[in-house]
Amino acid sequence: MVISGESVRLVSDTALVQRTLRSGQKVSFGGNVVVLGDVNPGAEIIADGHVVVLGALRGVVHAGAHGDDSATVVASSLLPTQIRIASYITRPPDGQPLPETFCPEVAYLRDGEVVIEKYVISK
Amino acid sequence: MGVVYVVTSGKGGVGKTTTTANLGCGLAKLGKQVVMLDTDIGLRNLDVVLGLENRIVYDVVDVVQGRCRLKQALIKDKRFENMYLLPAAQTKDKTAVTEVQMVELIDELKPQFDYILIDCPAGIEHGFKNAIAGADHAIVVTVPEVSAVRDADRIIGLLEAAGLNEPHLIINRIRTRMVQNGDMMSVEDMLEILAVDLLGIVPDDDSIVTSTNRGEPAVLDEMSRAGQAYRNITQRLCGAEVPLLDLSEKDGFLSRLKTLFAVR
Questions:
Q1: Whole-Å CA distances, B149 to B145, B155, B255
Q2: pLDDT tens column, B101-147
Q3: pLDDT at position A95
Q4: Residue A32's domain spans which residues?
Q5: How far is A120 from chain B (nearest CA, A)?
Q6: What is the three-class DSSP state of B168?
């Protein structure tokens, strides 16, 4: 079966980061960013498009940095210091540290708020 | 007009950042308007020790390079309305800021705050020169180790050369029993070498490790002995006469009881 239409898009503007980003390391890219590794606290990703982390996202991430409200952040383990999407910023609540999650999660904008949900693949 | 203290040591790992965080919180608790400035660009820690890391959007480099206004980069503390942090950048290095820019920045902060505490990076290079550029007074932190005292001595010399005379000394992580056994330098030994004003002594305290990791400075913990030491130091900074913390009472419950009865 050949899949076509909206669910398949040809994107030429995606950066592939094949390593773990450590504290002080920063990736800025004018498209989507895919990280094959972890993003540690103190590391930063700034992308104009989506951000996908196949690892633990513990640092700061900014998706849709130039105002794209539809940008999302997906990570195998989403434990960020701070998430920014377009012009919205959110951070984990004070007090207890975030529980380690073992399922992928997605962060996106809904009605001017960053919401985080289990990443469910819609069929 | 605020007074500017730089917290420095030369050697790394002696407790500059912990001291800055505790003095800042201690002064804020006394109702002072306090701002802490992290100048350890590239290796920032003060935000973590204060538990404010997840609030950072802009940093000191953004301010001096004009990407944001000073007010936007100042992070209000979650415990005290009157305490702020200006964080360092993590993805840049020390050369991102010049001494002139630091002086300008501090001049802008001075009218708004009572105390400006600058957390200095380890070393004597660019970062150190930036940190001391706008300071009125220096607080030198050291620990009872020969290498740390050597570095503190070097730093005091450099501070004097830069016009920061009569620095204050904080001796950190004193272990009473080791001093009593002659295995550790005593306060007197260190003062004999350094010959500067002693601002305070802080005992080695396990609670510092947990409080630092939790982002809750020990000075806010009434049960912590190191916290008590920092409370004393903040009061001295405000001009009060407070005797040095009595380190001998650390010897456990029994001997404390003995001294209690001996006194009466």
A1: 6, 10, 31
A2: 999 999 999 999 999 999 999 999 999 999 999 999 999 999 999 99
A3: 73
A4: 14-93+100-118
A5: 27
A6: strand
Q: Is residue A25 part of a domain?
A: yes
Residue A7 inside a domain? The answer is no
Assess if residue A109 is contained within a domain: yes
Instruction: Copy the structure tokens of residue A15.
Output: 């950066």
**Is the residue at A4 inside a domain?**
no
The CA radius of gyration of chain B, in Å to the nearest whole number, is: 18
Strand bridging mode B34-38 / B115-119: parallel
Q: Report helix, strand or coil for B204.
A: coil
Interface predicted TM-score (ipTM) of this complex, two decimals:
0.78
pLDDT digits (tens, 9 = 90+) for B165-211: 999 999 999 999 999 999 999 999 999 999 999 999 999 999 999 99
On whether any CB of chain B is under 8 Å from the CB of A26, the answer is yes
> Which residues of A1-123 form beta strands (DSSP E)?
14-17, 26-29, 32-35, 44-47, 51-57, 60-63, 73-78, 82-85, 88-90, 105-110, 113-118
Q: What is the pLDDT of residues B10-28, one digit of tens each?
A: 999 999 999 999 999 999 9
**Domains identified in chain A, total number:** 1
DSSP notation for A71-90: --EEEEEE--SEEEETTEEE
**Buried-exposed string B217-249: b where 16+ CB fall within 10 A, e elsewhere:** bbbbbeebbbbbbbbbbbbbbeeeeeeebebee
Closest residue to A89, CB basis, from B57, B78, B91: B57
Q: Which of residues 27-66 of B touch A (CB under 8 A)?
A: 42-44, 51, 53-57
Q: Structure tokens of B23?
A: 């003095």
pLDDT surpasses 60 at A86 = yes
B54 and A81 within 8 Å at the Cβ level: the answer is yes
CB contact under 8 A, B53 and A81: yes
pTM summary value: 0.88
Q: In chain B, what are the domains? A: 3-263 (3.40.50.300)
- Which residue in this structure is represented by tokens 């940008």? A71
Q: In chain A, whose CA is at the least distance from the CA of B47? A: A42
Does the structure show a pLDDT above 70 at B260? no
- Cβ B123 vs Cβ B10: under 8 Å: yes
Q: What is the CATH number of the domain that holds A58?
A: 2.160.20.70
The yes-or-no verdict on residue B264 having pLDDT over 50 is no
